[in-house]
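REVIEWER CHECKLIST
Item 1: Sequence provided? yes
Item 2: Single chain? yes
Item 3: Sequence as submitted:
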Amino acid sequence: MNSRAEKFAGVDGAKGAWVVAVFDGSGLTWTGCSSVAEVLEHTRDCARVGVDMPLSLPVDGYRISELEAKAFLGRARSSIFHTPVVDVLDASTYEHACALSRSITGKAISKQTWHILPAVQSWREADFDPDIYVEVHPECSFRAMSPTTTFASKKSGRGVGQRLAALGRWSGHLDLDDLPDGPVVDDFLDAAAAAWSARRFHVGEHRTFGTADASDRIVA
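Item 4: Structure as written out by the authors:
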């Protein structure tokens, strides 16, 4: 088996930058990247890459993938916020973005959504293979990874411990000795969960929310 088939990665946004978790078949390591271009370079030898960022945007309304993922998460559905319609990317201010969204969907966007729009745009402008780089939602990944666990908030000590335990059962080794500066603990956990889903997608064990192709798809 070549090296490309042996490596999988997960990507999570981290305060204007990115954290990338790479699984090489025996353990997980993490790297910080300053741009999407750097992420693509760092992961170019990976068989599949899971990205915790919207890789498709609706023209109007809500994405089916997000509605299905919310239903899957049940009480934890609030961890998924709806992706804005594509026209919102043209907005120059938050107020303008809300007005555009209201004119199309009847609802404004959240401040959280507004703050991730530059990251969404960066991925839209990037040149990547949508069959290699797939959208994931880490909370769906953790739920699929450990379906009997009632996960506490990823911001809590209990939630961190639950997620580390789930990841440890998968990877066998977590290299936590030399983590990059900048990302907080849930960024590392979410990137690792994205790598888990990327591997699942590669071997055909994944769960799909939305469409089978990349037009409106989240995998777990």
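Item 5: Key structural point noted by reviewer: Helices lie at 3-6, 36-42, 64-73, 94-105, 111-125, 138-145, 157-171, 185-203.
Item 6: Recommendation: ____
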